[in-house]
Amino acid sequence: MSEVQRGLLAGVLASAIWGGMYVVSKVVLEVVPPVTLVAVRMGIAFVAMLLYLRLLGRGWRLPRELWGRVLAMGLVGYALSITAQFIGTDLAGAALGSLITTASPLVTVALASLLGLERVTARAWLGLGVALLGVWVLSGSGEANLPGVLWLLLAALTWGVLGLIGGQAVRRHDPALVSAWASAVGGAALLPLVPGELARQPVGEITAGIVAGVLYLGIVSTAVAFTFWVYAVARAGSVLSGIAFFAQPAVGALLGWALLGESLGLGFALGAALLVAGALVARPK
C-alpha cells in the first residue's frame, strides 16, 4: 500500500469516526453544554495524545517553527469549528450535522483559489455551485433548523480554513504531536467561556453513559480521529483527503436515523445528493 493509499485510508477512518460522533454528541449535549463539552474534550485529547507520545518514546515538545500554525489550528479548527459543530448538531440534528460539514473540502478549494495557492478549474467552480445548491435545499426543507444550519456552515467554513493552515504543518512533523498541541490551544481558548456558560446552563445528571460519551469524544473522536486526519492530509494531500470526508454523512445519517429516530425525508435525500455530487465534480480527475 502506497503512502497516498495509507493517507486515504486514514482519512476514511477519521471521517467514519466523526460520522458516529454526531450521534454521541447529540446525546451528551442534552446534559453538558457545548462550549464546556468542547473544552473538556480537548483536554482529554491532549492528555491522551501526550501519554501516547511518551509510551512510544516520541518527543512531546513542539518545535518553535510550528507555534504559529498550531496556534491558528487550535483557535480556528479546534475551538471555533468544533464548538460551532456541536451547537449546530444540537439544534439541527446528527444527520444534518454530519452532512453540511462535509462541505469543508469545498471551502478549502475556494480559499486555495482565492489566495492563489492553487489553480481551480471551471469544473471545480461548477461543483461548488452544485454543492451550495444542496446546502440551500437542506436549509429550506421543513426538517432543517435554520440557526442550526448556519452554525454548521460556520463549522464547515472554519474546518476548510484548518485544511489550509494544517496542510503544511504535518508534512514534516509527527501528526500526533501537531494534533496534541492544537487540542491544547483549542481547549485553553475556550476555558474563559466555561464559567459563564455553566451559570446559564448547568450540567445535568452525569451517568455512566454520559461519562463514556465524553471519553469517546475526547479519545476516539479527537485524539485518534484528528491524528488520522492530519496524517491523511500529510500523506494524501488536502485535495485527496477531502474525498475521504464523504464517509461522514453516511455514518452520521444512518446512526441518527437508527439510534435517535431522526427523519431522513426527500428534502434531506435531495440535498445530500446535490452536496455529494458537487463535491465529486469539484475534485480533480
TrEMBL record:
It is found in: Membrane. It comes from the Bacteria. The keyword Disulfide bond does not apply. The chain crosses the membrane at residues 7-25, 31-54, 66-88, 94-117, 124-142, 148-165, 177-194, 206-232, 239-258, 264-282. Residues 6-139, 147-281 form the EamA domain. Coiled coil: none annotated. It is a multi-pass membrane protein. Pfam families: EamA. Keywords: Membrane, Transmembrane, Transmembrane helix. The keyword Transmembrane applies. GO terms for cellular component: membrane. Belongs to the EamA transporter family. This is S-adenosylmethionine/S-adenosylhomocysteine transporter. It comes from Calidithermus terrae. The lineage of its organism: Bacteria, Thermotogati, Deinococcota, Deinococci, Thermales.
